Amino acid sequence: MPVTPSASPPTRPAVVAVARRRALHGWAYAAPTALLVVGLFVLPVLLVGQMSLSDWPLLAGNQGLNAPENYVDAVTHRFFWDSVVFTLKYTLIATVLLIGLGLGLALLVQESSRWSAVLRTSILVPSALGLASASLLFYALYSPQVGPLSPLLQRLGLADGPVSFLGTPDSALWSTVFLVVWRFAGFYMLLLMVGLQGIPHEVIEAARMDGANRWQSFLHVTLPLLRPSLALCTVLCVTGSLLAFDQFYILTKGGPDNSTLTVVQLIYNVAFQGQNDLGIAAALSIVVLVVLVVVNVAQMRAMRAGQED
Amino acid sequence: MATHRRASARLVASFLAAGLAGSVLAACGTSSADGGTQEAQVSAEGVDDGAELTLWTRAPLEQQANLLVEAYNASHENQVELTVVPNDDYVAKVGAAAGSGGLPDLFAADIVYVPNWVQQGLFADVTDAIAELDHADQINQGHLAGGTLDGRQHVLPFVLDVSVMFYNKDLYEQAGLDPEQGPTTLAEFSEQAKAVDELGGDVNGTYFGGNCGGCLVFTWFPQIWAAGEDVMNEDGTESLLAGDTAQEVYGVWKDLVDSDAVGEGSKEETGATWTGPFLEGEVGVMPFPATMLATADEALGEVGVAPIPGPDGGASTFVGGDGIGISKDSENADQAWNFMSWLMSEEAQVEVLAKNGDVVSRGDLAENEYSSKDPRVLAVNEVAAQGRTPLAINFQQAFNAPGSPWMTMIRNEVFGEGGTVEPDNEEITAVLGQ
Question: How far apart are CA B341 and CA B126, in angstroms?
Fold first, then answer.
């Protein structure tokens, strides 16, 4: 059957050409992102990797290979284990409080009652403030000289003398946790609220028909269906807390007596505040990066396992 | 906003310049670091041909730096562009620039960091040029010594900041003290602080940066020097801060803390606001930076000034502030030297610094038309002559850094149980000797 070339089904080279064009399109679409990732993540990480293996004083630049001394110096630094323990403690406290409070608030404001819009907004407003600005605000509020909180507590009869918010290790930790909860609770409430609204009403209705009370339907219906949202929040919160820096840098500078020194602050101090050794700081950064990758992979696994159930 | 934009424009420009220069410099190897700049500088005046110069300094000396740069720009072809960096970020910024070859033409550095930075090769050698200056022998010796390595000089004093006792004359009067007579011994200081503290209300006897190593070095070292003792050995490798006089000084402060004559927040004070309470009129007497004299007068009317005494009298001060040098990366070394040499002139020292109530860097100008008007300024200038500048390569890590061993020692002695002064002192020595 004679056919004209134009009407024939595409020949093999034509298919290849189309596929190639598609592939090119794909690369073109992906290229900006790929460039950004390479330029802003891969290259810096490689540079940090090189720094961590080199003798690299801040002011003098690269002085040649120094592996593995930097890593040894990093983990034997006199504040390394203190800062690891403190960071883990802070992460645990912040995660439990933020997720718990975020979930509670989300349950509270999800029903559209008269006040929920006002409540929702007022809880969310602090999230619009940068963490550094919020820390500065609390620095002023906590200030023993100009802060209004201490006189207020005294007038209300909740405190006998002046309250030193940042003066002791425990008060400094809890004062910072309070700031972080104030700043982030609204954000986690929002994430969990979206999750809650994604749960079909019928399932809850069905549970109620089966005679489940509020608590039971929350425990056995809402919570399991909320699992992806909870996992997302946990990943965000744990990662964010392990990398805590701004709030402690501004409020406590790691004090009093190095009791609130987080790992990232230690990195900053080693690099810029005295020791001025970028090599050791980079080694610490790599250690933190590896830990974060492991933690995140574990959390993602746990999340996926949850979905397969 | 405008300065922000200018700064970023300059950043871009300096990147471009660095890029262009890179290819040229590559041929010369690394010789430009130290020796490359000194040849043409031997003229005392340097070159004034309308070059654009960049100058970095840190925020505490912003007022003085602005006045100096304004005066220079008004009278010279060269134009200096000043960038003021927050105190805490300054080392990081200089470090990043040094690593990438992007230092400005001129930059100032806290004089206690200068020995380290000179050793790292950040400053160009200006020994021969300094020798050409008319009044070379009158320039503050502490600052010159800080910038000297192997007999070669790299740094001139930019702004001197000395520590003196400030006291609030109003509060002294209210407390029944003589407002014209400051403390002459630490015991008197303690008595007067307690007397003012009796006034009650928001008023406290004294205040100090209890969590700020730099503040404590600046205000407490003179109390030890005033008794004729040293804080470190000559090389700056061994700490002598466990001596009897030092312990006596700690005891005076511990007593003030225990008797609650110290303002709220001293213990947490990281240095960001350590001068605040006094300027608000809530503190009776405390060791203070003399550069704040104009500011304090503005806030409180006339403040009282006295030298910092030792436990049994005497007087001393910490000659701090910033030294300034030409950076290793400067392409305009001759023009930059023109600024530095002008800085040492009577015009800059008297008509700019002294007029503002600041300490002059040249001994022969200590008595000038402005200082003779104000006996307090004269007193500050006189005490500056008796002052010292402690020099050590690892000064920052041993004293200024957050969580430094010096901080640990003071906090143990003044806020804690005490009794660990010997081991704490050994820890300082260990860091100094690294």
Answer: 11
